[in-house]
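User: two proteins, same treatment. go.

Assistant:
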Amino acid sequence: MKITKPEELHQHPEYKEALVELLFQLADDDFILSYRGSEWLGLAPHIEEDIAFSSINQDTMGHAAMYYQLLEDIGIGKADDLAHQRPSSERRNAVLLEEVNGPGHYLHEPRYDWAFAVVRHYFYTQAKKVRIDSLKHSSYEPLAQVAVKINMELYYHLMHWRTWFIQLTNAQGEARERMKNAVAKVFEDFGGVLTLGAKGDRMVEFGLIESEETLKQRWVQAMKPIFEEVNLDLPSEFGMKRGNGRNGEHTADLDEAIMTLSEVYRLDPLTAW
């Protein structure tokens, strides 16, 4: 089945249901991680990284906006409302991506963990690249077109985080130990990034995306040479220690993030943002 226009979806309700679930996963992942990245503004290790990281976050929020727009196009709601007004129980992002950057607050004694930021963003970006490569062949043509656009920016995002990961992990002393600890921490919840959730089988059946296991194996294949380069063993277990965000299971970190993200929007939802 190949669907080229949103108006064709009314003839295929089960296809639409699977598509909506996938789009919310894609949008919510990018939305929350771009916010966590933005909290590093002014706090990155050096000024060049501050600029580069800010650019990546801006791109990532733009990707989320594209997915929310696809949802608006098929009648699910206004893109801005979908981004800002849904409670955490309706969000489909992976729990790992909502976790705070570290102790403290952006405005009050932030003691953020750069090692965690590097590992989380690198591992997620590689998973995103695997998904995007699959989505370029999605049976829903508007999604495939968006994937092609996003893919053009992902190359630079991936190169950026790969460089940080290799340099810090190959360093000696504290830097390497902190990176090893960050890898262990990220893997505790990384299964939530790789899963397609309860409707994953339907997504695959309708040709929206390839199977969860296929995507997982491609991620592993991409990461194996990197782990060999830094002399680390690639963990074989992908946990979901704090719940499966694809099922609406989230932490208080997401509630607080949504309150901050939507504060201005809630002042006047009718304004064009």
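Protein 2:
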Amino acid sequence: MIGLVTERLMLLDTASLYFRAYFGVPESVKAPDGTPVNAVRGLLDFITRLVEDREPTRLVACMDADWRPQFRVDAIPSYKAHRVAEEAGPDEEEIPDTLGPQVPVIEQALDALGIPRVGVAGFEADDVIATLATRSPTAVDIVTGDRDLFQLVDDARSIRVLYTVKGVAAHEVIDEAAVLARYGVPASAYADFATLRGDASDGLPGVKGVGDKTAAQLIVEYGDLAGVRRAAADPRAGLTPARRARIVEASDYLDVAPGVVRVVRDVPLPPAAEWDRPLPTEPADPAALDTLRRQWGLTGPVHRLLDVLAARR
């Protein structure tokens, strides 16, 4: 019996992981009919490694029900605009042709295994992760390659990020000390720091001329984004004229950017019965899993994951 003190919720940033699997596992890995299944096999092996290494007692695959939510686009139209598929509608993300067909297989495999998937219409997986982490009474491991989620790190509540930017096997454990060492700001100020710095990969311009170092200096000196803006409005504050001018010029951006950068911590989750359950030790639907295994050539990854799950009984 696993005691309360050892309980740990693991939250997967699923799209982040299957994109990494897709680009990390050769496309020559195919199903019997020749269809690439590199993302499927890679994701299953990632989950096996994470469960074996980190021993979560609950596991939730968080999904992007909306990868580019309208409330974020309304605030900053450039938000992820460069990722929109040119020949599709404004809500379609550009992804590799051979990855798209693998996503339904991933979802079916997770369902057959009994690993709950949670996505909420109008919100990104980041928001689902934030809400689940905020509500969790136990320790939380967030598995992602997205540094935006560093804003959730909280030592007092045992919330940390397993950062996979260098790979799942070589993931880094990000706690408050790690955030401070990397960026010079506490995790609680990371969202304000990121707002000032911007992020080209998400279409967020930031404040012109403000990079990591300057953003950190501003947060340390003035406490938070509101303090930085107050200092920019006060000629008696210690800001240089150039920095003051840049912050003032970015006022329109700074008015709306926090609502884009900060994750939503209170999305309307589905009923807890759909996702709040112990780590499965056997498949929820053995027949469906067997069909998927044979159809898509997933015998090795499925058996490896089942063995690790069974060992958690």
